[in-house]
Amino acid sequence: MSDTGPSNERTVPRRALLQTVGGVSALTLAGCLGGDGGDGGDGGDGGDGGGRLTLSQAKSPIEFDPIVLNDVPSAEVADQIFEAPYRFSQDLELVPVLASGDPEIERSGQRWIVPLNGDATFQNGDPVTASDVAYSYTAPLEEETENAGEVNMIETVEPVDETTVQFDLAFEFGAFKWYLSRSVVPESVREEDKDAFNKEEPVGSGPFTFEDWSEGEFVEISRWEDYWGEPVPNLETVEFTPVEEGTTRITTLESGENDVVKDIPPQSWETIENMSNASVEAVEGVSYFYLAFNCNEGPTADPQVREAVDYAFSMDDAVEQFVEPTGVRQYAPVPGVLSEGWDFPVDEWADIAHDKDVDRAKELLDDAGAVPDDWTADIIVPPDEKRENIGISVGNGIEAAGYSANVTRLDWPQFLEQYATGSADDYNMFTLGWAGSPDPDTFLYFLFAQEQEGVTNGTYYRNDQVDGNIMQARQATDREERRSRYIDAITTILEDRAHIPSYGLKNSFGVRDRVQDFVAHPTDQFWLVSGENNVSVQ
Amino acid sequence: MGIARYTLWRLVQAVPVLLGVVTITFLLANAIPGDPVQTMLGPSPSQAEVASIRAKYGLDQPLWQRYVNYLLDIARGDLGRSIYYETPVTTKIAERFPKTMLLMLSSYLFAIVVAVPLGVISAKRRNEPTDHAARVVSLIGVSTPSFWIGLMLILIFVFKLGLFPSTNLVLPWADPADVTGASTRIDVLGTALHHLALPVVALGTLQMAAITRIERSEMLDVLSQDYVTLARAYGVRERTILRKHAFRNAQLPVITIIGLQLASAIGGAILIEAVFSINGMGTLILTAIYNLDYPLIMGTTLVFSLFFLVGVILTDITYAYVDPRVSYGSKEV
Question: Which CATH number fits domain B95-290: 1.10.3720.10, 1.10.490.10, 3.90.226.10, 3.40.640.10?
């Protein structure tokens, strides 16, 4: 394996790029909701031995087949119906679900062998076999589905026997175990009628069965009484309803129309905290938001200019003002929960960030040969208030230092087309976010690897030593070796200021008091039943 | 020309208008920066995936060819296949259209039922407290965005008082089995009205205010005419003057404003559906735009245009019906 590693084409699912956060907050009422919290409503409280939970999503699911689905709301429902070989625990460890133990790694991380639990069955009574697992991981590639990028490192998947499946990868890939959390479908049922499986009768091995769906209105799932695993759900039925407008969504929590609401707008955080019958359930997510520089062309290709911009504004103040309490400040290009899990030297990295010093910024900009006297910094931001406000803070800082700045808010299609061109005509800086799996590779590789330039790496930051560390850490299976390489790479990236890390978002829910054991999960997924929780309603 | 021929003629005239709408929408949708395939696949699609999706939706063809194909499809009643939902556009529109229609027609009903008497009373009691109150209400109504009214209604009547639901819309003709807590048709109707109340007020307030203002103004104008003065001199009862001599003559501009308000009602419905989480055409067109779903953008715009055109034609026909001086386009000899 060369230093530069594999260069085969690979894709990133739409879910990875944080597009939707804050997208519907324009109509929210800043802090004007509050009050005494009546307890009416038709949230429902279930029948014998169970209960009915109503949960509001920010958008409507549009399909349920894990082979093809590629959006968060659909995945949230499918996660309750389908199961994967492994699931992320609350502390971001992989725990077996359909698997019976840890994967066995061979050929330096190019072959992964997964033992399956022989007791697992689908909701139609068929056993979950190695052949079903193999099918679930190869079908996206064969059918060229939208989410095929999640498995395109796989060369072949073969059932060794009924309960053992073997993955052979196109290259050594130490982080592959995080990709083993992909849901498994029954091959025979799906092949019979793919459209029906996707939208009418999805069949999984999870604790809930699909009951009814009206697109844009509701999805209903109910407890699978013969669930093969443990525990059997407390909840009898669950209804998911989409409410896109943030304030209205929060109001349905207060009125009792919903028991749980997802994605709390920043302005409504305090409202829920003040409710007498509900509270906020939040956990720091596996996400990373940042200000990135065009290191390819224009004045920001000069590290001195990037350092000047760091001096020109205060990211601490911007995050405090525009993000908290819905997120937390980050000082590294990986989520805080990952830094904690990998014991990264975050405090040392925090010291690399400069405090605001406009005079120093002006001095550096004036001295930099690459900056014309009439320089206007072009900052592009996506349609999200938080990232737009951070872009404006940067622009204000540059103007305070004696130069001009244009902050341009672009719609997503235009932003995606423009942010990775590397052309100074398109941008000098941009703000963006990234959600990955609980492994540093899913952040560092996609955001900084040279082979991702123009794809997901819009910085065009080039440092062969950094790139070598990222690529070798991606292939290594030894955790200590990977950690050491990531520390080296991140330290250099921060010193060179290809990014100025900004914040990580919390995955947040408003939860009525009648709901027990509902837990926010760092991965932006949630499970109503797992080895760690079993939601019920009083 | 009789009313039937006139109607037919107006419908024929609508065809080139719709063609223009289709052409402009097609060009504008395709001029929006960005790539629907990239929006669909994320930031790093492989070339194979991109090619596959482009071919699937005909996006690999030249613009002119797609335009011609689209026109031919429309002629066959086929509005294409939604890129986002992966279903026929006509299916999505058929699902969503009834709710938007219910919302808009109910809002119009609310607006007319409230505005016409309010305008008449306001004119009759000019410069009295009733008139002042009506003018203030109508001024606020025309000056306030419908989505803000919606949010305020939610804040007061849902959040504070808990009197109404804040989301969804129940169709009055829905099967009782599909409506929570309903066992009879009457129950469904009650639930539908309960859900409909706030969105209707939010959306209908602008129309109500605009109609009230024009009704008052026209009534004042008519009531100052010589023939009204003469009628009063003859001792005709004030109620008869209002009902028989003034009211009908004051309605022509009101009918015009009702027709013209259709455009703002359509725009308002899009926002109101977002605020009240109503699964109608408004949320559909927003989803289409967010995801650069060309067929869905064009299909929903076409339906809204068609709706507007029908509204305008109905307005013209009503206008001619109410005012005998207005002919249907040719003179009787």
Answer: 1.10.3720.10
